[in-house]
Fold this sequence. Notes:
By secondary structure, the chain is an all-alpha fold. It has helices spanning 3-6, 11-15, 17-23, 28-47, 50-67, 78-96, 116-134, 138-148, 154-161, 165-185.
Amino acid sequence: MSPATVAGIPDAFWRDPVERAKTDPAAFAELYDRYSARIFRFVRSRIHDDGLAEDITADVFMSALRGIKSYRDQGRPFSCWLYRIAANAVASHYRNHRSPLSLDDAIDVPSPCPDPVDEVVARDRLRAVWEAVDRLPPQQRAAMILKFSDDLTMDNIGAILGKSSAAAKLLIYRAVQRLRAELVMEPVLA
């Protein structure tokens, strides 16, 4: 028998870092190492400032550490809980600090075309799309970022936003329809 079984603690406890982190804050470091880069990318895609995104990401993990004892596995990945905390932290930031941000600063996509004119046109189109995404209602904007920036599944997007996967899919569908209508009305130089 293993020492864990002898002590009356199931072996699964020692394999699951979330369960260990509930009683041992040092075990939380493993969760931080596993998820911090993903949470930072999510926050950075919404905040557009590296320093501020780092601060908010740190706040997310501090909140998670403080609340880890109340975390209950509901059949979703632990990362969904962290994304939910991050989404709330970003929303709280915007409620408290209203300032215009440009998505163009956050996106640096190199053009496959060597022609500088083609690169300028592609950047203008990309800027127009992300500016349009930035004008979407908050839930649609978050769903679009989670889907097209973080490449999450509908189930995970729904869990993060507190909705079903069908509701998340509907949010993205409506956002895409809205973007199509808006971007058709805005002519882009060709």
